[in-house]
Amino acid sequence: MIRIRVEPAPIDVAAEMALAEAGEAGAVATFTGLVRADDGVETLELEHYPGATQAALHALAEQAMGRWGLHAATVVHRVGPMRAGERIVFVAAAAAHRAAALDACAYLIDRLKTDAPFWKREVRAGVATWVEARQGDEAAAARWSI
Amino acid sequence: MIRIRVEPAPIDVAAEMALAEAGEAGAVATFTGLVRADDGVETLELEHYPGATQAALHALAEQAMGRWGLHAATVVHRVGPMRAGERIVFVAAAAAHRAAALDACAYLIDRLKTDAPFWKREVRAGVATWVEARQGDEAAAARWSI
Amino acid sequence: MELLYFAWVRETVGLGHQQVTPPDHVATVADLLDWLAADSDAHRAAFADRARLRAAVDQQFLPLDASVAGAREVAIFPPVTGG
Amino acid sequence: MELLYFAWVRETVGLGHQQVTPPDHVATVADLLDWLAADSDAHRAAFADRARLRAAVDQQFLPLDASVAGAREVAIFPPVTGG
User: Fold this and answer.
1) Mutate to test the interface with A, among C6, C9, C81 (most CBs of A within 10 A)
2) Is B17–A21 a contact, with Cβ atoms under 8 angstroms apart?
3) So which domain of life are we looking at (chains C, D) (predicted)?
4) Which terminus of chain C is more solvent-facing, meaning fewer CB atoms within 10 Å of its CB: N or C?
């Protein structure tokens, strides 16, 4: 089962875990990205490309389902304003065994970073700055090329 | 923060996630192992070596904390009888960035499989069988040797 | 043709979207950026550094030399930073 | 010396733990298994296939040729299957 959500509401990890586990999988790997408080960010704002975002995330989940024979793939991405410590993104991969779940989870978040049309703006001391893309993200995504 | 729990109570993923996230990490990776229902197992029983189990898991968590500079490492393992679909184990690694969290999470579950004194007994149609160790587990643990 | 702008491109252009009818010599995304920049300081500023721009044509992510022939929707934005 | 047995080793021996005082010639875990097997069918059955056994001496996981000199607690069990 593929589950994609892009919405301003806080991410409910317990509910998402229960859905990912529902497919009788033996192994569920997850990744959660959070707004870090340690570098002075007060507010993070997430902008996205409606329609294209959901399509990109769905395509990513389908690729992971096929490549690792998953029972379930979940991608939940928050949009709009959020505060330090809040969850930005949650991905989950459910499989029969752990290697598939762990690899698929890493794939989902690595590829999301380069393939999904989201943009972050950080507000520090009242000043907003658009986050620059990281070189390392391209390399992390490229290691999954077949 | 290291958090180790070995107990017969069901694993509360939401509570464990909240604790792992509390260290102001930017990234939390988790792995959950579940009793698979698809191969006819009615009940799974987990036996362990009290005292030695906690020490082995604590040593594992300390190694992960040091190697990846984690904010938090969590290992929760259920013991006693459990039913199909229930969680057996939950591990979490919290770090500043995703690569450290993902790698440390895989390390924790791979090494737990070979280093922690737990034994599984499956009951199918009323017949109990001790689970045999998997060859692949040794290989998965060995890839983390420095 | 509907144009969409995101993140600092949207802020610099001063618009989130606009409807345009480019002339026939506009064949690629890069041509489209040149044509838009010719008449507007805001567009020229937003499109000045092409290395910082990415594009989607009808929601397909493509390089700036991709064709816009027959496109209904072209989006211009910085490299993505989600997750 | 306290001996602990787990999983099918415990079931085959028929005991979870036992207190023993091995003679001086028992130097290693393997010697200990030989000595225990000599007087008991249940121990002999449990320890028949050494390749299927693992050990811990004072809660340190060690090979069967490890010394038991001065050990307070020796555990015998199959390869672990947790997680």
Assistant:
1) C81
2) no
3) Bacteria
4) N
- CA D41 remoteness from chain centre: 15
Q: Which residues does chain A have with pLDDT short of 50? A: none
Joined together, the tokens standing for residue B120 give 């599984």
Measure the CA–CA gap between C2 and C71, rounded to whole angstroms: 9
Is B54:B79 a contact under the CB 8 Å cutoff? no
- Shortest CA distance from C75: residue in chain A: A49
Q: Rounded to whole angstroms, how far apart are CA atoms B61 and B107? A: 10
The complex's ipTM works out to 0.93
- As a whole-number percent, the residues of chain B with pLDDT over 70 amount to 99
pLDDT tens digits, one per residue of A11-34: 999 999 999 998 778 999 999 999
Cβ of residue C8 closer than 8 Å to a chain A Cβ: yes
**CA-to-CA distance for A17 and C27, rounded, in angstroms?**
47
d(CA A110, CA C61): 17
The predicted-structure confidence for B99-144, as pLDDT tens digits, reads as follows 999 999 999 999 999 999 999 999 999 999 999 998 888 888 889 9
The pair of three-digit structure tokens given for residue C39, joined into one six-digit string: 């008449």
Task: List the single best residue of B11, B19, B28 to mutate versus A (max A Cβ within 10 A).
Answer: B28
Q: How far does D14 lie from chain B, in Å, by closest CA?
A: 16
Supply the DSSP symbol for A133: P
C59–chain A Cβ distance below 8 A for any pair: yes
Q: What angle do CA D9, D13, D18 make, to 5 degrees?
A: 105
Place domain A2-142 in its CATH homologous superfamily: Molybdopterin biosynthesis MoaE subunit (3.90.1170.40)
Pairwise CB contact (< 8 Å): D78 & B47:
no
Which one of D4, D75, D81 has the shortest CB-CB distance to B133? D81
Residue A145's pLDDT is what?
Answer: 85
Q: What is the tens place of the pLDDT at every residue in B66-97?
A: 999 999 999 999 999 999 999 999 999 999 99
Q: Are A98 and B31 a contacting pair at CB < 8 A?
A: yes
Whether residue B109 and residue A102 make contact (CB cut-off 8 A), yes or no, is yes
Using CB atoms within 10 Å of the CB of residue C25, give its burial: 0 to 12 exposed, 13 to 18 middle, 19+ buried: exposed
Map out the domains of chain C as residue ranges.
Answer: 2-77
